[in-house]
Amino acid sequence: MITCVVEYVIDPAKTDAFERFGHRWIELVNRHGGTHHGYFLPSEGASDKALALFSFPSLAAYEEYRKLFGVDPDFVAADRIRDESGCVLRYERTFMRPLLPEPATP
């Protein structure tokens, strides 16, 4: 399993648009073989930072999902929310592997 961590710098005045953008991507990731763990928005402290975390069973599965970018109409529409609103100023993707609790021994 790989987990993609996306760190966003967002426009705090456009949080509503960012939430619409996030809801669309949660749906798309889940529909196309991933598990979206949610978006994490500012609450206290810095008001221009947000995170998204989602996982795919493998890098190959993630790459299949990425083939839909710019091609699938639902993906294009989701990106249009970001592009037209200007809610995302920049973002950076990092791929990580989870360290999960070990199974309990009987």
Structure at a glance:
With about 110 residues, the protein is α+β, with helices and mostly antiparallel strands.
- Average pLDDT, all residues: 93
Strand/helix succession: EHEEHHE
Show unreliable segments. Answer: none
The radius of gyration is 15 Å
Strand-pairing-aware structural class: alpha+beta
Gap from first CA to last CA: 26 Å
What is the CATH topology classification name?
Answer: Alpha-Beta Plaits
**Helical coverage, percent range:** 25-40%
Q: How many individual helices?
A: 3
- Number of separate strands: 4
Can you identify the CATH class? Alpha Beta
Short descriptors:
106 residues, alpha+beta, Alpha-Beta Plaits, 4-stranded antiparallel β-sheet, 36% helix
Structure, described:
The protein is of the alpha+beta class. It has one domain: 2-Layer Sandwich (Alpha-Beta Plaits). The chain is built from three helices and four strands; from the N terminus they run E-H-E-E-H-H-E. It has a four-stranded antiparallel β-sheet. Strand 2 (35-40) and strand 3 form a beta hairpin. Helix 1 (15-31) runs antiparallel to helix 3 (73-85). The protein starts with a strand and ends in a 10-residue tail after the last strand.
Record the SSE blueprint.
Blueprint: E1 2-10, H1 15-31, E2 35-40, E3 49-56, H2 59-66, H3 73-85, E4 88-96
Antiparallel strand pairs: 1-3, 1-4, 2-3
Helix pairs in contact: 1-3
Organism: Stackebrandtia nassauensis (strain DSM 44728 / CIP 108903 / NRRL B-16338 / NBRC 102104 / LLR-40K-21)
Domain NIPSNAP: 7-99
InterPro entries: Dimeric_a/b-barrel, NIPSNAP
